[in-house]
Write a structure and sequence with these properties.
Length: 437
């Protein structure tokens, strides 16, 4: 009994150690580009300089430092970031060693500032700059592997030191979203504020912007201090879960029904007094085509006469579509019949496209019949539609037909023999040719 409890205790201790190791204070070392805008001579041309940097991430500033192996070439800059939220410890930011693919990381100096935006200005009503702002501020943007995560973090360090604290992090786990037409869409965005920062608790604001080919509009802006949606002219029905927003910093945007015009980039921006961070989410609304074949059912095809079939693909988006035809005979083998003659596309009122392909079937070449299939290749997934083809008077007969024909031939031969025998046996019968002479 005592042994059992000892073993149990040991297990617990081991488990505790394991958990501690997993959530251990230092979790990742990120390779990052340090980017600095440099104003050219006369302030006219702005170029940027890129320096290599290493970010040592840990969740607890006072924990023992675990030093990883030094990189091949020493970085230009090294920073230590304490991130109690462990956002920067996400597994998509720590590739397996030796991995060629690396998370993307860029760190730039950040200047805390006042904003004149209607939904942000109330956050800094007093307009006095706290002494807390007199420090080095950086903004770090990260893209995890496989598009799993986008993070933007604002960090602060006492002037000219390398020990940074994460103050605001904005994340998205839906960096790239694909939706069918008419479905509800969730564009994930969440934020975390260091509760020990003097800037926490004085309110926040959230803004969602839409951008497509240089065209931008505000979708929604929310003043979290006054609990007021200040702007929501962009999208009907676009909303946030305000309770989740205040409780957990969940600023995800919900669109009740995906439409084609919703495809594009969405920028989730979170404001604290003097601070701002944002992540970008891409939405692509994709709808595969509906196929129909005409005429359906196919009329009985006659060998020697071509038969026209048409495949109509409709309601798809985006435009790119590949139509082709296939035939499956009684042997069960599918063979391609080519693309047919494909028409130009038309666009419907809802922005979806339609396109057709017409094919001239040569029934003589298709045996006694089979299945004719229209195949559509589309980003939203492949689609197929089939009709049955029956051919009469085929040139290549089946084995049963051949057997029957041989039988008929034999019977005919027998009949002729019988007739000629009965004529010749009558004796008086004179061949017609001779009688005419
Ligand atoms: C955020 O809120 C939305 C809507 O309630 C929910 O579907 C989503 O799962 C939440 N995200 C997180 C990370 O909790």
């Amino acid at each position: 009994m005592a042994d059992l409890s000892t073993a149990y205790t040991l297990c617990l201790v081991a488990a505790a150690c394991y958990i501690k190791a997993c959530s251990s204070s230092s979790c990742a070392v990120l390779e990052c580009w340090f980017v600095r805008e440099q104003t050219g001579r006369g302030g006219l041309s702005a170029t940027s300089s890129h320096e290599t940097s290493l970010l040592h991430i840990r969740t607890d500033r006072h924990a023992a430092e675990s030093r990883p192996a030094p990189p091949d070439s020493p970085p230009d800059r090294v920073y230590f970031i304490t991130d109690p939220s462990a956002t920067l410890c996400h597994r998509s930011l720590t590739p397996p060693s030796g991995s060629v693919e690396k998370p993307r990381c860029e760190i730039i100096p950040f200047l805390p500032h006042l904003s004149a935006l209607k939904w942000v200005a109330p956050l800094t009503d007093s307009a006095s700059s706290p002494i807390y702002l007199q420090a080095d501020w950086f903004s770090t943007s990260l893209q995890g592997l496989d598009g799993q995560l986008a993070v933007s973090t604002i960090t602060r360090a006492a002037t000219a030191t390398t020990e940074h604290d994460a103050v605001l992090s904005v994340t998205s786990t839906t960096v790239s979203v694909r939706s069918r037409l008419g479905e509800p869409v969730l564009l994930d965005c969440g934020f975390w504020v260091d509760p020990s920062s003097p800037l926490s608790g004085s309110g926040f604001a959230v803004e969602w912007r839409y951008q497509f080919r240089g065209d931008g509009r505000l979708v929604l802006a929310y003043d979290g201090k006054a609990d007021r949606v200040t702007e929501a002219r962009g999208e009907e029905g676009a909303t946030l879960d305000f309770e989740a927003l205040h409780r957990r910093g969940n600023a995800s945007l919900m669109l009740p029904k995906a439409e084609l015009r919703h495809s594009g980039l969405y920028i989730c921006t979170v404001y604290l007094p003097y601070l701002v961070a944002q992540v970008t989410v891409e939405l692509e609304v994709v709808e595969p085509p509906s196929l129909s074949i005409h005429p359906s059912p196919l009329p009985l095809a006659v060998a020697g006469q071509t038969l026209a079939v048409q495949c109509d693909a409709s309601g798809f988006a985006p435009l790119s579509l590949e139509l082709s035809w296939e035939f499956k005979g009684s042997d069960g083998e599918a063979r391609p019949l080519g693309p047919g003659s494909v028409t130009g596309h038309r666009q419907a009122w809802d922005g979806t496209y339609s396109q057709s392909s017409r094919l001239e079937l040569d029934p003589a070449a298709l045996g006694p019949g089979g299945e004719v299939t229209c195949v559509a290749g589309h980003l939203g997934g492949p689609r197929r539609a089939s009709v049955t083809l029956n051919v009469v008077g085929v040139s290549s007969p089946s084995i049963e037909d051949s057997m029957a024909m041989v039988g008929v031939a034999l019977a005919l031969y027998g009949l002729i023999q019988l007739v000629s025998w009965s004529f010749s046996s009558s004796g008086e019968a004179v061949p017609q040719g001779k009688k005419d002479e």
